[in-house]
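2 proteins. here.
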Amino acid sequence: MSLGLRIKTLRKAKSLTQQQLADLVGVSRIYIQALESNRRLPSMKLLQRLAESLDVRVADIVRNGNNDKTERLQLEELLENAEGVEIWYRSKKLSNREIQLVQKLVDAALSEWDREHGDGTN
């Protein structure tokens, strides 16, 4: 399931209109429509606001629905490219504190993954 479809599904499960969700997260209805149709990607800050408004975790929004092994491989690939992610974040002119928060988020996501799925060394 695509990110946009997950957002739409979660929104409908909460019986919210696009306008109501837009009002809750502070964007336009057109932007929500673009997210749901996969024409735009949300920022991490917007993902957090969406998760709070939909009463789910960010991981529930971004989860791709693949099996655990595929998800683990994708997570490992993302981490192997962590240097590129750091360069991207630096190019966005984030402060050192913001970069540290992003790194903590990644560490927390990995810890949660390992708690839920084992450490992958089986």
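next one coming up
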Amino acid sequence: MFLPHSRSAPYNCLIVSLSLSDIPRIISDYTTAAENAKQAGFDGVEIHAANGYLIDQFLRDGTNQRNDEYGGPIENRARFLLEVTEAVVKVWGSERVGLRLSPLNPFNDIKDSDPQATFYYAVNALNLFNLAYLHVTEMGAEAPGLGGPIFNVKELRDICQGIYITNGGYDKTKANTVLEKNEADAVAFGVPYLANPDLASRFHKDAKLNIPNEKTFYVGEEKGYTDYPTMSPR
């Protein structure tokens, strides 16, 4: 939810662990969301299992303090991820479902004692679904230790049996290098696209990029959203 500069969204709630009866309901919500996307005419969906949100909170032992079948060893902590994936695949078919992970990203103060083991297991388990792609951000590698012990996230490329998309701090030159080394099948861009709605064309023409205004990233007005200029026609 985006709000104008002068307003804020209060978080007047107590944080509690989900009850076992809550979990099937939330998985059902993922099913509903997938069905809604299909009815709206989308070509597919990406499951957001990254950046400190709910699925990521289940995966990481720094946030998952449960002592039931959804907590403790990684086989349990990954259960929610796999059940959500199964539910969404039932709606779309595996060829229309991608999934995003962020092994080292400390966003929302999330961390893991052994992210290498956690995400090795997760990617191996996700291989069974034959998803359209796996989208893995390398964010967090630039701040070693904040999200847990550092490891080379690119190692997940060798475990993934399908299309592998990398992301995080790339420019055109770095992206081409990764592709040439076969360290990924594709590179995703986020921040550069915020400031350059015609980013692909700019890359193609080696054109100068607009500089993103970070002060506008998480606000809800048009500034920083619809006011970046596109290239002049040549």
